Amino acid sequence: MAFIERHAEKTIERMSQSFPTVLVTGARQTGKTTLLKNVTDKKSVGYLTFDDPTEEQSAKNDPQSFIDFHPSPFLFDEVQYVPELFRYLKIEIDKNRHNGMYYLTGSQQFRLMEKATESLSGRIGIVQLYPLSAREKRGDSFDQPFIPSKDYILQRNSAFSGKELSASDIWNSIFTGGYPEVANGNVSPNDFYSNYLKTYIERDIRSLT
Prior knowledge:
Blueprint: H1 8-16, E1 21-25, H2 32-40, E2 46-49, H3 53-61, H4 63-69, E3 74-77, H5 85-95, E4 102-106, H6 109-120, E5 124-128, H7 134-138, H8 150-159, H9 167-176, H10 180-183, H11 189-208
Parallel strand pairs: 1-4, 1-5, 2-3, 3-4
Helix pairs in contact: 3-4, 5-6
């Protein structure tokens, strides 16, 4: 799969220079892991995912030893499976606080955000990752936030020069949406979204209730 540049990468880099921990959260399949791996692979940051039941159980059984065996900088993927870890991350950060110690990804935002803000308040920068924007799908480098002003419109028009879209292009973009798997053409929109909906109903919503 071709990597699509995400505008959130600049935000993550900035957060990692301001906080000991950076959490990238958002819906499943928005590209959280791919994005963070792209950032951290340049820095020789360790990685593991709690999708692995063995790693999940190990962290739950003895969180302190688990942290000791995975020294920072480290990327913990799908951290919502191990909420017990947040308290021990706080302890480790307070021992030797510096920026860019830990990178986290997680879905199931309600419980995840509660634990993260409760345990790591003042120690964590949080980035909400959404599906690909129209700019990102086009490879558009213009990444300024929308401001309804004349200067913004003029700057945007200049950056968008020569990239006019037909009505069919616009419709196709709306229909396919911004999830990376669909945008890359790896799966049809109908197949992806029907299974995506089933996953949320059968897994996440049932878990929350």
